[in-house]
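Help! Submission page says 'invalid entity' but I think these are all valid:
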Amino acid sequence: MNRHIVVLVAALLSAGLQTTTARQADTGVEKLLASAHRKATIDGDLKGAIGEYEKVVAGAGQNRALAAKALVEMADCYQKLGDTEARKILERVLREYSDQTEAAAIARARLGTTEPSATTRGDRSVWSGPRVDGFGTISPDGRFLTYTDWWTTGGLVLRELASGNERRLTSGSYADGQTLYSAISRDGRQVAYQWFRNDKKRYELRVASLQGTGMPESSRVLDLEDAEGIAPYDWSPDGKWLAAFVERADRTGQLGLVGVKDGSLRVLKSVDWMGPTKIFFSPDGQYIAYDLSVGDTSRERHIFVMTVDGSSETAVVAHPSENVITGWSPDGRYILFASDRSGSFGLWGQPVAGGRAQGTPKFLKPDIGSTWSLGLTRSGTMYVWTGSPTYLEVASIDLDAGKIAPRESGPLQHFIGSRGRPDWSADGKYLAYSSCGLLGGGPCTIIVRSMDTGELRELRPKLQYFFFPRWAPDSRSFVTQGTDLKGRRGAYRIDAQTGEVSTVGMPVSTAGMPQEFVRQWSADGTAVYLGKSDDQHLEIVRHDLATGRNDEVVRLARRGVPPNYVFGFSVSPDERAVAIVSTDRKDPAEQTLTVVTLGAAESKPLLRVTSPQFLFGAQFQDPAWTPDSRALIVGKSVAATNDVAELWLVPVDGSDPRKLQFDSEHFVAGEGFRLSPDGRQIAFIGQAGAPGAEIRALENFLPGLAASK
Amino acid sequence: VLCAAALVVPLGLDLHIPAPEANPITVEKVERGRRLFNDRRLSRDRTIACSSCHDPDRAFTDGRRIAVGVDGRLGRRNAPAIINRGYGRAFFWDGRVRTLEEQVAKPIQDVDEMDFSVAGAASRVGMTPAELTHALSTYVRSILSGNAPFDRFVNGESAALSTLERQGLQIFRGGGNCTACHVGPNFTDEHLHNTGVAWQPSGSDEPAHATPSSVRAGYFRDSGDGRGAFKTPTLREVARTAPYMHDGSVATLREVIDYYDRGGNKNPFLDSELHSLGLTSADKLALLAFLGSLSGTITQ
């Protein structure tokens, strides 16, 4: 062979090898960056993340974009830790990586706002507390907000933010129906809202006037027998159309426009079940903007703009990160969105013209702490909903003394986003808990924490949503009620190593909620206990996994109109009794914790509360049995602040229940609590800030757009 | 019925029909594509047009088990109903092509179909190859079926479906497990699934070339994506598009229902969604009635 050819081939091979090696190195570092990002944003392990970011920077080689990104995210971790190292790192980004425009822009913006402060400049809290809800929108003048009153009637309320004065916009109670999403028109005179009619068991779209005082008249705009939900997200500027998201019975989602006058539905685009976070009309009414997930189990979202006649659609933000639409700038020149591309959710603005992206997005505001926009006012103030940060706590519990003592070292782990539903493995060596994203809507993951080493494993089950994963007695899998990627609701088993999902031999439902709801394993792992209900009866059933046989454990008649219902139940560790939290929907409503001795047809009410107090006993908060099956721990709300709970120890022998001594101010009862198998520890979710959530006004970010132009 | 730019979109379909920026939908292109679709000059011997296998009067199918091309050559697969393909994300039974622009060129080039070249065909009709494929694909985007009784029902006209059809809809979404694949306005997930149709248990007729998909227990007569999987077809106009399956091996819709009721042909790569359904005769009748409600108006 010609020597030159040999040399050339060798050189090419060598170059190829070098390229391959470089690619492999890049892939390795990219994986490390993803791991660091996950540690920082999902696990809340900031120090661990910093260590990994350092390795990414050291190993990035020629990949300057990767190194710059890692530095920016590392600075974010330092900033959260209150460490001045953040500033040094950001200065390094500007000094050494000025060619990396996105990272440099973030660094530049952060260097102007890295003062240790809970809120960034121009932000203000306009409403906080346990009743704060984010399903409404802000009025164009910023005076009013609509929200759903989850705590009393389920109805729609208009709140004047300055005075706190409220006006009910719907009548009746949960027995009649409830609202979910609502949107105030651009002239502030009307509100559109989603109304679930209990008699029809489906949502309809209604519009009511906000003029005058008192209870407004409302009119039905759209009622589709075949739709599971119709959510109004925004009004067209001329008030003629509503941008809505329709969930079809086959779990197809549809972005559409609903004619306010005639209820006509123009379906613009059909998408998968995840759908958009929100849809916003452009100020000129010519376009809508929305975000869509890139995959069934991915949190990555991109942002699109579509003409209102459906003739064209353009991706305006397609960055490999979670990008969530928050609105348009009032002049229509920017699409505003929250993105975690800088390590935490910041506010960004993508310049647009003619429905198309113009240049790169501008970084407007770091750490807005939310992706959930309630819209912008005419003057450009954006209102966002934020939940308090939460943490996982494992505390010692002394059942004899009736005391719970949190660890001196503080919470086990801080969280960003929705977390909860802890459960112990049977040997007490692992604690599993769930995460369903910043807003809690999924896709959900399970985190398994080794109590010995602190090591974390994340499982990503292919389920749209799941409730409370319960460890199998052999610790090899979980069982949970959930919904698969095709919208089938039922009981699923999740492999504790791989996250693989399978059914447990019970039928799954493709339409509506199934009548059976799985709750826990039998002690030997051969069966699961599930609740069943129909119009007349409530049943607790033991379902044998091998044979599929159902054995009735408890059968209760439903009483009253509407009938009472079982809120939650828990079978005792010795499987001789079942604790039931039931509700009698009389006025005031009454809740009772009852223990039924199996086989003896004997039931004993142990604790009773009347509204407004209630017992936490729904899916995430079943009463917890002590390991000896002689007592239960149950959450009881503290009146007037329903999100705060006390924990009570309730002996089965009928002796007086005792309130456990426990600083419950930050205990999030709604996310569940579990006793360790030895009964000496209790895992629960705590809230770092005030109970409930907050609506914040983000101001003065739009001038930044002008400055950056 | 609503208008989205150049097209009239019937009830039940999305107003937005995706099209590449380089090939926007225009009325002029639709018309040009329509003429090309019926033009036999696109085949080598000027005997076959697109419409020869995709007959508008048969919901854009040909009624044959396997498509027939130039010189009477038998193709490999059943001619699919090319309706609502503008919403498609994968084309051909094996999903090997990702755009309509690419798809429309293939039958022209296939030796068992039109056996010609795109350049040759374009030259005959006085166009560039790009103009030809753009016009043809734009016309295919304009072939829309909607406004069926089902569409009227889901858009609020409760009486649009009979009691039997509504029962069938419940089975379609419930015990029939049909929505595991036939989902959305176009009744397809655009994904590939092994339903076992191509599976042939081992026997004396096993061909020597039945690899690599073959295993000891049998082989695939057509390996599809390599594992016997084929794309979920739309169910729009399904009552008018017999025979069924990628190989046209099932003559009637009732037989299709029977096939899925027994869980398909077991094979190593059978889709996990397939299992015996236990449908009753009444269920099957209802399902059949419902499938009939998916025939509506075809606009083009």
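Support: the input was valid. A stray whitespace character was the problem, and the output above is from the cleaned input. The mean pLDDT of chain B is 93.
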